[in-house]
Structures are given as structure tokens and as C-alpha cells.
Amino acid sequence: MTQVSTGSEAALHLSGNWCYWLFLGLIVCIESHSTEIIQEETFHHCCQLLLQQSEQLRDGWSWESVQGSQVGYLKKTVLRSVDINLSSVWDQVGSSSDSGSHSVCHQQQQEKSALVASYDADSIKEDITDDDGGFCAVSKDSRKVLQYEYHILYSCSYSTPVLYFRAFTLEGRSLSLEEVWSSVHPNFRIRLQNSPLNTITQQEHPLLGQPFFMLHPCKTEEFMRPVLQLAQDQNRPVNYVLTWLSVVGPLVGLDVPLMYFTRLLPSPALLSNPKPN
Amino acid sequence: MSDTAESPTEPQKEEPQKEEPPPPAEESATSEDKKKIDVLLKAVGDTPIMKTKKWAVERGRTVQSLSQFITRFLKLDATEQLFIYVNQSFAPSPDQDVGILFDCFGSDGKLVLHYCKSQAWG
């Protein structure tokens, strides 16, 4: 592959092994983006690139593979302080007025301060109180520290990545679908709830066989198409999985640090090699 | 920071070349947050093009707030969702301050954001 060998020669002059693999990998990602979907091999490659960046950024992603096979997934565990307020989820029609904290702005403020995208227990500032016996509180102080586990798998049926996740209280109780909904970003909650199909559904994890929540991949092509087109027009390299994650992550409380996208990349001039005829 | 040639023809009102979206109902911002940055909004695909593309936006304004503004401006209905892309390569987090995005991805004194509407999820 002429393009790759040219690239690798240029890449060797760049400092660091990381740049070399990133460079090669991005070539793969660009070439595979003739459509809005990706092959499993490309998915793997994009995941490895994401993983390398994650390690540099200490963002906590790991690769889990199924024993004895190439198949695997990206995994990340996060502790979040979330306001589990069930009544606020169904309060959109404004029927309940027993709590004064249901204005959209207040929700936004709470959500803004609620995200703790770090696995560092020291950063948890909230006291864990068990006097609720659950989450029946209607007050705005019904905060719980939860452990979220996110998995990125490859969907063969859609030829796209797909996000699985589950959440537990620190006591080990898994969250219900209603509780998970209440932790969805307010920006998306109404729209997701209005969808004719269930967007967040409970599914059996394809590899682990355990119950997870899944963000349905049916819209992936649609929101990936514009950005891939833009990137192609500008000869800009894109990591499909990372870009996909930047869209779906916020829907389920998963923060994708900006640093993933500001990292030094090889100069665009090196990447805009003439395409092979 | 001067206006570029691609500014659209303004309607016959006495409006400045750059406009400001109405302020959101948030708590008082710091003086740094109140500083404004230039944002250029570009439509993708068959998404409606905004008549005014250039906006002066407070640094402290979030992506979500800007997204809501665009949604209202374009009169999108509840079944439509707006996607915003930065640097033609990713979607910014809704909680991200536009000022930070400008610092990282601004060029020629402005932050270019591409937006695209699609049917709601599902």
C-alpha cells in the first residue's frame, strides 16, 4: 500500500511510537469511511487508538477480550454523583408541584455539578446517606453515588459501535430502567423519551450474557454521516469510534474529555496524501 | 477581528452585523464568562441555513444553551434533534463552555460550528 508506506516514512520522523500508530491507524480510519458504517477490523483499530489516547489522558478505558478470541470491547467504570429523583423524570407535564426543584434550569445546574468523570474515590464530595432506604426522596438533595460501567462493542447487525452500560449503587444494587432514565442528561431526556422505539433498553450483553442497558444503534449512521462527510471534505482524520462516542456519551452521562480532540496530531499536510488511483 | 465576506445580507433593520442570542436564564456569570467570542454557524446537509450565521456568544454559554437557541431559531419541532460538530470531527459535550471550544478550536478569530438536524432517536 503505497499510501501507508509513504506515511510510515514520514511518521518515523515524528517523535514517539504513539504518533506512528496513530498516524497509521488514522489512515485506516479515513479509508474505511466511504460509508457511515465500519467493518469490525476498523472498529478494533479505532478502539486501540482510543485506548492509547485514554492511557495518555488517564481516562480509564480498558480493552476486555473474550478468552481465546479476537472479539472484545472497550470498558470503562466511572463513579458518578447523580440526583436520582424519580418524580422529576415524569414531571415534564408539570403535574407535580411538591418539590420546587423541577425547573429546567435547576435540573441543568444539578446535572452540571453532578458529573464526576473520574474513578478517583477522593473526588467524591457527597456524603453517602442510607436514611432514604432507597431513593424515595423528592427533595433536591436525593443524591446518590453510583458506579457506572460502560462497554463499547461492535454490532454486526448495524456495522457500528454500540454502547452498553449498567449502573449500581455502592451497596451493589443495580439500577432500574426508570432510575437510569432519571440520570440521562436533561437535554436529551425529553427527546429520547418521545421516541417511538425505546432508545435505552435492557438487553443481554452479547459477550457476558448479563443484563445491561443498551443505547440503540439505529441512529448511528444518521449522526455519523454529516461529520464523516465534513471530515472527508477537509481531509481531516477522524477516529470513528471516538467521534461516535462524543455523540452518544453525553446521552448516558459518559464524559469524553476534550483533550481527546485537542491532542497533537501530525500536520494535516502529512495526511493529505493524494489518494491512490 | 473583522467581519468576513461571507456574512449574509442583513434584512432592512438596524441590526449589527453580528448578533447576540438572548441570554439564558442562568445564574450570574463571572466577568470572564461574559466576554464574547465569535461563532460561525454552518448548516450541514439539508438542514435549514440560519439567516444570520455569525454570532457573538458569551464565553460562559454552554453548547446545550446554544443548541437550544439554534433549535428555537430554526423552529425545529419536538421530533427533531440538533447535532453540533466542532472541527469537523466530533460532537462537543452539551455542558462544554463555548469559550473553551473557542480557545481550543477557534481559528481566524472565530469558532466554526457545524449543525445538522435529524429525526429524534429511535
UniProtKB/TrEMBL annotation, chain B:
GO CC terms in record: Atg12-Atg5-Atg16 complex; autophagosome membrane; phagophore assembly site membrane
Main location: cytoplasm
UniProt topology in membrane: Peripheral membrane protein
Low complexity composition bias: residue spans: 1-10
Chain residue ranges for the region called Disordered: 1-34
Subunit structure: Forms a conjugate with ATG5.
Protein name: Ubiquitin-like protein ATG12
Species of origin: Pleuronectes platessa (European plaice)
